[in-house]
Amino acid sequence: MTGGAGTGPAVPPGSRPDIVNRMLRRSILAFLIALIVIASASAQLRVAPVGERPGEVSLALLLRKLASTGTFMETTAHPDDEDNALLSMLGHGRGMRTVLVTATRGNGGQNEIGPELFEPLGVLRTEELLAVHRFDGAEQYFTRAIDFGFSFSVEESIQKWGHDEIVGDYVHHIRATRPDVIAGFLCGGTGGGQHHQASAQLTIEAFRAAADPAKFPEQIKEGLRSWQAKRVFCTDTTSFGPQARQPPTPDLLKTDVSAFDATLGRTYAELGLEARSMHKCQGTSQLLLLPGQGQGRTYRLRDTVIDQAGVAPKDLFDGIDV
Ligand SMILES: [Zn+2]
């Protein structure tokens, strides 16, 4: 306080004490503004990619990779269908190679954050998918399938995509990455405009076709070798909503992503939701879990070369040397 009547001696304007006072006030103001800017910037960046954690975390995660030769492939129809918690658990937790093959770029979907639709939306969703993998650690591949919008039948989806082309693309990725275990998206039901069920059906066909050198021989001529994965699953519709409480059947395997990873400082369910929050044009960024929440998806065994048919193992990789 300066210059108030009866509160003390007035400081003449332009005098040395007046200049010091003004400089002091400006410095305090600048400091407060800087604090506000820093606080709001860190509030906007709600989650940090795994690679931006301290060096010893990255090193610990890399060392886990040395302890496993396992490869897991998930296939889906659109960006945001994937099981980010499972990819995080297998990739970061168990040190496996994780591969996601998404049939389309999702250009037939909606956009909650901007004007991009159709092809520009496909570009945006592709970039969001790559941002997702900075959290869950998966490699990304696509097929040639076009997301033409809602479909009422699996047959229409497969006919518009091109049956042989898309099975061939899945076979190509299986032969190139040589997964032990494959999991497609929805086994049945009506969700997602039937692209989900179509991508699962073509994945299950590709499981056997990849091992047959007479199928897609042009790929073998180009240098790829045939490859038989050990088992293929699809994501059971009981993974979602009230159906999740239905009693399990012998061909179902329930994944557990609730384990706390002390190196990452969170559960795989939490990390999966952090990854998923990158699908911003699909409105997923508000879905972050509280610690302790989060259910693993259920997978249905659809084909196998090592198990009794129709009886799912207890773990995706049971009986496979990794
Ligand atoms: Zn979808």
Outline the structure in words.
The protein is α/β, with parallel strands linked by helices. The protein has a single domain, classed as Rossmann fold (3-Layer(aba) Sandwich). The protein is built from nine helices and nine strands. The protein has a seven-stranded mixed beta sheet with strand order 3-2-1-4-5-9-6, with helices on both faces. It is elongated. The relative contact order is 0.15. The site of zinc ion has 5 residues, from loops. Zinc ion binds next to loops.
Number of strands: 9
Order of helices and strands: HHEHEHEHHEHHEEEEHE
Total of domains: 1
- Please identify the top-level CATH class: Alpha Beta
Radius of gyration: 26 Å
Which stretches are poorly predicted, pLDDT < 50 over at least 5 residues?
A: 1-8
Q: Beta-strand level of the residues, as a percent range?
A: 5-15%
Straight-line N-to-C gap: 73 Å
What is the tally of helical segments? 9
Mean pLDDT: 90
**Which of globular, elongated, flat, extended, rod-shaped describes the shape?**
elongated
What is the CATH third-level topology name?
A: Rossmann fold
User: From the 3D coordinates, which CATH architecture would you assign?
Assistant: 3-Layer(aba) Sandwich
Percentage of residues assigned to helices: 25-40%
| CATH homologous superfamily classification | LmbE-like
The neighbouring-strand order within the major sheet is 3-2-1-4-5-9-6
